[in-house]
# Entry
Amino acid sequence: MTSRHPVDPQNQNTNFADDLTNYDADVFTLDPKVMAEAEAPVIVMDAKGVPLFANKNAVGFANGIRDGLFPEIYQLIRRALTTPGGVVELMTFEVQRGTATLELTALPTTKNEVMILPRDVSMDRNLREALIDSRQRYRDIVEVSSAFAWETDETGKFIFVSPRGALGYRADDIVGRFPGKFLLDTADQDSEHVFRSQKAVRDVPVWFRRSNGRDACLSVSSTPVYSREGVWIGTRGLAHDITEQRRRESEVATARNRDRLMTYIVRTMRDEIDPLMVLKGASEASTRALACSHCVIFKRNDETGDLELTAGDADKAANEIAHQALHQMQKTNETFDAHVGNYRLIGLRCHYHQRNNGAVIFMFDADHPEPTDGERAIMTEVADQVGIAIEQAIQHERILTLSRTDGMTGLLNRRAFFEELKRRHSRLRRENAPAALMYVDMDNFKLVNDIHGHQAGDDAILTLTQVLLDNVRPSDLVARLGGDEFVLWLEGADIPAASARAKTLMKESAVLGKYSGDAEHPLGISVGIAVHEPDSKETLEQLVQRADQTMYQVKKLGKGRFGIAAAPGSKDPAKIEV
# Structure
């Protein structure tokens, strides 16, 4: 095709629009050879839809039309012949490889024929549909997920947010604002940088503030956006709310830490054999595990019912404050939680079978952070474990008391007395101090049982027990060796002091006379005394032997009197006094 109106280079004012819209037949004269060799497919068909001509790139399509494979083409021919300017239509045909979409341009000619210019747009259409599907799929995923999509410009300001918004904000509330306006910590520049990063980042945790003021942790992933010229123009990405996940992870971590600390505390308690040492171990382990200043444990006294300090720190001032907290606790059933002095105190009661048997006071420095729920749970568990340990300690003390005391009188028994006597005697030798060992034996006791019965004998023993207890000091020891035999250890007593104490006992024991079997055999006591001198090297066995032999001599000489043994190594007899 050649133009009849070449451009005149010297005429720059020519109206090309007018020239182009004016045409004549010569303008549209096509060279048949050019059409036959054209790369674009060309088909010429008559009014009945019979192909008259097809170039090399349209032969396959023309043969299909002749074979009736594409009946849709006949409707196109009719529309082209009746439509000025021809028609352009997309048609999809079944072919061997599946389907093909062609854009058919049908132009009527002056001979009542139609020139068809087919163009395969299958790939374009598939790509376009794939893109549309991809966009729709992306929209659907974003809409149904808990994540929200966002995009920022080169200044870091939001220019797009998912239509439904995020964190309680509408999309319009976020668009046009900077991420820093929503950060929980406005000074956290590293978190804000995620929204204007020039490199891809994945799953960065960022703390935001919701519209209701509560905290939210988002996992943010982003990728940079570049212009066609390769210039960075912003960042886009997704933010996923992981607050609940973080909360669960925190709870699991707290539970694991609580289990670890409780395992440590319980193991420390179980490693001790002595129940009282168990409480001491619990105090020390709790102090370390909870990073508190002191952990003070009070145990109920099984006899008085009072709570007594049984484990804690050597700091007397801290223990005094713990006592103040305990006093306040006993006025209410509530857990004690208050500041006293320079400490933050949290006090909990200990129980065993719903019976209060003690208390634990946890003492933190006043500036210590508020205890977490996990730490408070540990304190509660410690109090429960201590309640069990206290009961074990109480039972241990009961068993120990039973094993060391005489069942009738409550005095020390033979084994307990001599165990304690061994310790006392060793201390005397180190301190170079005096003491007296005093054997007391009832006279004519068998006759009481024979005449008045064993109940009277028991009453007589209890009466003498009270006489002995009324005439000793707290530092002294009183024991029943068995039957009607008793023994006293008089701490710090020399010969004059021991003699004076023996005279008092002889006088006070006159009360036993009412239990006598008969007038000729009055019920009374005989006393044998051995005094340990400060410079003496005498062994405990030798001291006991001197006291026992003196008692034998008193009994031999007529009972109802006391005797003081001669000095160690002396062959002199004991000094017997009425």
